Amino acid sequence: MPDFARHSLLDLPPYPAAGYARLADRIATLIATGNDVVFVQAEAVVALEAAATSLGTAGMRALNIVTSPYGELFGGWLTRAGVDVVELRAEPGLPVTVEAVAQALAGAGGVDLVALVHAESASGILNPLPAIARLAREKGALLLVDAVASAGGHELDVDALGIDIAVIGPQKGLGGPAGISALCVSQRAWQAIDRPDAPQRSVLSLIDIKRNWLDAGRGALSGMPSALEFHALEAALDRVEAEGMAGTIARHVRAQRATRAGLEALGARLWIGDEREASRLVTTILLPEGLDAHRLAQDEAAIAAGLTAGVGAVASKLLRLDHTGPRAGRETVLQGVRAVGHILNRAGFATDERAAEEAVAGVYGP
Ligand SMILES: *Cc1c(COP(=O)(O)O)cnc(C)c1O
């Protein structure tokens, strides 16, 4: 008889039903929002699809800002739901400009919904969310923000900005599991979602979640919730709370500064020149002419340091350094900067490794 040994990942105690509300409240406290926090028991792209599917309806007009494949997907789901979608595409790999958003909103007549990604890990950019939020409010439009790649790295003032739906994934800056997502939903958004024709009895239905969980006293969740994911989410929240949200953000700021300083000292070219327009989770460099990011990313040192090619239209020109979540620390930053030096050297470009190490030390201390 094989030994039926207890396994720490398989034979978990069930997650207590009362625990879900506690987790939601802890997320609300970390984000400092008074809006409802609900869970979608799936990875964050599913939560985004649920938001588009539940909110979108025929006759609705949306301005969908596209700065990565995520925005593209979102526009597709809105269109499928019958929404009249105006797409605003930023320059490939760059943040959208406030002027472009203002112009699109002025030209669009009425707009009921503005949707955008806050920070992009795909290209290492940060979109100007506060200014866009102001424009959306002036139009009286609902505002949906994909904050999966910004939560834990960037300030996300859901209530002050008037974000009606913020989609949060624990798996990036918060260092948590990828199989569960949270949505912060305003009363205004619930009013738009709660329609007779809203999708129901569907994993993409937010009104199901509202009625079956939120309105029912926040006890048991539908289906068989994954204990693994909820225990992991709790552990992730323990860790973030121990550091404090401000501390988690500060650690990402430091990792970003050190990475950017190291890369510049090395002689690499930062893709986003202005730190305020750059992601704090991922830093990208523009490769010298003739080098291909996909090929360079296959180098052993690049793989070991977690360097990857960009995603989207400018993918082959951009190399990404990932300093997200638990990776936002000195060792990972140093390893990434050194790996860039190594692969640029091998490709025949001069780099200054010593200056790079000193620049990283200049941010982290000796
Ligand atoms: C990572 C990420 C998501 C979620 O993608 P998953 O495949 O579910 O992890 C959504 N939006 C953005 C901007 C992301 O970076």
TrEMBL record:
The keyword Transferase applies. One of its GO terms (molecular function) is L-serine-pyruvate transaminase activity. Substrate binds at R320. Residues 25-304 form the Aminotransferase class V domain. GO terms for biological process: glycine biosynthetic process, by transamination of glyoxylate. The modification N6-(pyridoxal phosphate)lysine is found at K172. InterPro entries: Aminotrans_V_dom, PyrdxlP-dep_Trfase, PyrdxlP-dep_Trfase_major, PyrdxlP-dep_Trfase_small, SP_NH2Trfase/AEP_transaminase. Pfam families: Aminotran_5. Keywords: Aminotransferase, Pyridoxal phosphate, Transferase. Its cofactor is pyridoxal 5'-phosphate. Belongs to the class-V pyridoxal-phosphate-dependent aminotransferase family. This is Aspartate aminotransferase. It comes from Aquamicrobium defluvii. The lineage of its organism: Bacteria, Pseudomonadati, Pseudomonadota, Alphaproteobacteria, Hyphomicrobiales.
